[in-house]
Amino acid sequence: MAALPGSSASSPPPARLVAAVLLAALLQAAATDNYDSYLATLKNVSALISNEDMGVSFIEDLEVPYTTMEHVDSSSQWDYATNITEYNENNTNKVSNEKAKLEREFGLTAKRFDWQNFKNESLKRLFRHVATIGLAALPDDKLENATSLSSKMATIYGSTKVTVGKEKDLSLEPDLVRMMKEVGDYDKLREVWLAWHNAVGPAVKEYFIPYVTLANEGASLDGYANLKDAWLSDYETANMTEIVDKLWEEVSPLYKKLHAFVRMKLREIYPGRLPADGTIPAHLLGNMWAQDWSSLYTRLSEEKAPLDITKTIQEQKWNASRMFHAAEDFFASIGLEKMTPTFWEKSIITKPDDRDFQCHASAWDMHDGDDFRIKMCTDPSMEELRTVHHEMGHVEYYMLYKHQHVLNRQGANEGFHEAVGDLIGLSVATKTHYEKLGLMKPTDKYNPTDILLMSALTKIAFLPFGYILDKWRWTIFTGETPFEKMNEKFWEYRIKYQGVSPPVKRNESFFDGGAKYHVALHVPYLRYFVSYMLQFQFHEHLCTTTNKIDGTHPFHECDIYGEKNAGEILRNGLSLGRSKPWPEVLEIMAGTNQMSASSLKKYFGPLEKWLDEQIKNEKVGWDDANVQDYMGSPSFANKVDLSAGTVLASVMVVVFCRAYGSL
Question: Record-annotated residues binding Zn(2+) 2 (predicted)?
């Protein structure tokens, strides 16, 4: 047999074949090893820009265009909110969409940097802010759909008018709000409550469901598991929900005592009309959402002639201008800023007669030098005087951090912004300050507990509502609560935590949470609960620092008016904006880096002792209440004319922007 070309006749073919096969196998193994190495190497290669100097340049270059974008958007929304027309609505939507697209471009550019591994912590914070773009993460068609859905919900909330009895074309503000404050007529209050909730909730629900679906998608594209996580990211605290739950556990015993006292008094006003399970019907507490019970004060006070600051304000003919100048005087007295000439020129503090106007009080940073504004339909009362201080507190914050980079011109967290004006309100609600304002005389007899009760009906009564509104929405965002069970979950939480029940049975054809401004306009609400903790922490620190608390001057009587040292502490904290983590700012303003309810409990300590005596024969709580007892077809023949509650398109539209509003 002839040998193959190139082969040796002396080598048996089988041996050479085996060698060749073995060599090929070895070469293949080596190649496989190399490819694994190649892939491993590529996985360690980053396409992100790691040069921090380039990152600094990007952030610096962002200042002017980002500020311009914010100014244009704020101006557009101001025009819309203060002159509500179909033309302004359509054009504001166009501006909002273009702004979102710009935010997307800024955010996507930021994401090209390896900013999470930067060494400069301040730079990392700025990148985190610009890289979080929310709804702007959506594709253009979905973004425009989300904007349209949001606008429709706002229109429903703002344009709905209802009929109550023989009164027609009633709007929420001021008509229904005033009617809910009237105490005594159980059936009329129920009719007012049903008129609003039945007209607004179901209409909002139609758009709320697809909007949440899109918002969740945007949150996912932005790197969050869901919208709940996106909302909570503002607090930069991994265990924020646990912190909030703990705060609620600290204050809930005091709330339950106040609830028991108010329930006891309401039984006297409405004999035989309150449920046996211990809950209070939502329409009896003086507020459409049962979040502020201050309208009940004169009927709850044990005094024969209870303090009535609102009556005095009206008798003295206070107007909006006087209320705003009184608030400005307080801030100036502690060394903070006076309102700018532009503020007085461009703010609108009474409801115009010549056009449709959104009355929900809000403060605005126009991102243009000294242009800061408040929009409010001021109605002289004690409650409105508090609101004026609240909104002006936002403006003080705007002015004090205006030197910061545009991305840091926000509160240390959302709760800080809401707390500033309310902090000042704690000083206003004292006998000494009422005397300064001429609303009390030094010779006036008063019960200090009465002033505390007045405050508690606003502050303590609000806490469960502030706690549950987002807690409820989070369950929707995460999918824990299906869209088909939203109303049941809403009332489950209101009954469980607030001890408040619906006036009649409800079902899933209603969407009672949607009858609240912040739900219809998709505004996070946890900020208000947080602010109620912070304001008392700030107040105690300022009162202690200025030696306003001692054996003869209790915490709840502290008035920091005129205390420049207190103003300096506030200036040092507020001027930081959100350039530092909020615990560091809290350390400056409260002397601790931990949120706590201890200051709030200390403030209301004397009232709690008084409540203990008042309710010694009352059962505290509502353990027997069950949401299923309130779900089903309403047994009450609702005579509300729902046709009057349909949307009057483009008549009056609510706008939510980056302005901070009242709760």
Answer: 390, 394, 418
